[in-house]
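Structure first, sequence second, as always.
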């Protein structure tokens, strides 16, 4: 069964620290996406908003907030919360509504006004929340986790500080070409090495910032897209969305579950959680990593990007640094990764980032990415990971 839905429009608010509310950013992105699609807001049958608890308690804001700000017009509304996977969950919800016939056109919006500095847990006591436990009981902030993961790669695979730095160098070079990125200045390995240590072995420039920003998509069924097409070119299509959960037992340290499942009785499976995210997307799309033109992955830290190379199948386990050194993941390489500049250049605007990844794939597959254009791009994948076991990957094709 074909699950394709068309991406008719994309829109983003520039990432940065703007000091305003997330609704304003989301409305800018939504209006840009509608203009890109050539549609009036009143033609939208459903709004799916990706949310963060910083914008209110779950379910209170996002979908209805954006619908009200754009002007009540009777559209269905849904709010999705899945931390960093919220955007992919929102895309999947929109796709489901379209394929089920509940709506012809769906607007997907995610926006954030992030606090300064690294994230800390939301207020209140939540002893059943593994993220709250990680912060409050273990004292492991996000950078602490990133540092532990980097040390693990160094011990297992021989990755070096320079390998991590070169990820930042690559992504900063792409971000310098992206007018929507927060950081638009090239970076050298010496710059990374000279930045302050945050969580050994990672420096400040190894770790992404927190940002304000927004992204939006206008999705539609294929019949609607054909009937309303303004060009002879077929639209970019979303062919797969992966929202898988982990499989017992998990033997690798992961955030927020610092403790691992026991493998004493049940042997671990051949694929870890992050690997299973991409595998599910590939299986649904009927493609493999060899078919990719580009990828957008979740570079919360430089070391984590190297791990994603392996998890999405660009190379075998432990070979991420070697793939980076070969130039394969840079612009002009075999499979550019984070041609947008990644979170290294944007920072985290949590509900928006998985949507922004799809925006970048869409621009690339249309041939509209400007100086960072990947030649002849036809297939792309996004990958990130939400807390509490939310997988997040989207395959887009042209």
């Amino acid at each position: 069964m074909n699950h394709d839905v068309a991406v008719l429009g994309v829109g983003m608010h520039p990432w940065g620290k703007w000091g305003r509310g997330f609704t304003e950013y989301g409305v800018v992105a939504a209006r840009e996406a509608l203009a890109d699609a050539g549609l009036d807001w009143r033609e939208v049958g459903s709004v799916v908003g990706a949310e963060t608890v910083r914008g209110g308690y779950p379910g209170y804001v996002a979908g209805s907030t954006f619908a009200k700000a754009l002007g009540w017009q009777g559209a269905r509304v849904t709010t999705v919360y899945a931390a960093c996977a919220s955007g992919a969950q929102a895309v999947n919800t929109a796709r489901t509504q379209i394929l089920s016939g509940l709506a012809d056109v769906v607007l997907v919006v995610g926006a954030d006004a992030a606090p300064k500095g690294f994230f800390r847990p939301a207020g209140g006591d939540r002893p059943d929340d593994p993220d709250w436990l990680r912060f409050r009981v273990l004292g492991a902030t996000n950078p602490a986790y990133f540092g532990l993961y980097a040390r693990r790669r160094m011990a297992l695979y021989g990755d070096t500080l320079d390998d991590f730095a070169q990820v930042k160098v690559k992504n900063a070079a792409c971000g310098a070409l992206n007018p929507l990125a927060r950081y638009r200045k090239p970076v050298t390995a010496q710059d990374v090495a000279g930045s302050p240590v945050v969580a050994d072995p990672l420096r400040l420039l190894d770790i992404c910032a927190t940002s304000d920003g927004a992204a939006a998509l206008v999705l539609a069924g294929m019949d609607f897209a054909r009937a309303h097409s303004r060009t002879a070119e077929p639209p970019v299509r979303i062919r797969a969305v992966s929202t898988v959960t982990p499989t017992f037992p998990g033997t690798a340290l992961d955030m927020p579950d610092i403790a691992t499942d026991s493998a004493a009785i049940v042997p671990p499976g051949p694929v870890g959680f992050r690997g299973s995210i991409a595998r599910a997307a590939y299986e649904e799309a009927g493609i493999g990593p060899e078919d990719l033109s580009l990828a957008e992955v979740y570079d919360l830290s430089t070391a984590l990007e190297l791990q994603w190379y392996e998890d999405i199948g660009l190379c075998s386990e432990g070979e991420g640094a070697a793939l980076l050194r070969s130039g394969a993941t840079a612009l002009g390489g075999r499979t550019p990764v984070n041609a947008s500049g990644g979170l290294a250049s944007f920072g985290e605007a949590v509900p928006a980032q998985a949507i922004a990844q799809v925006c970048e794939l869409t621009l690339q597959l249309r041939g509209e990415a400007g100086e960072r254009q990947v030649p002849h791009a036809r297939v792309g994948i996004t990958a990130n990971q939400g807390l509490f076991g939310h997988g997040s990957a989207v395959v887009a094709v042209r």
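Margin note: The longest strand covers residues 5-16.
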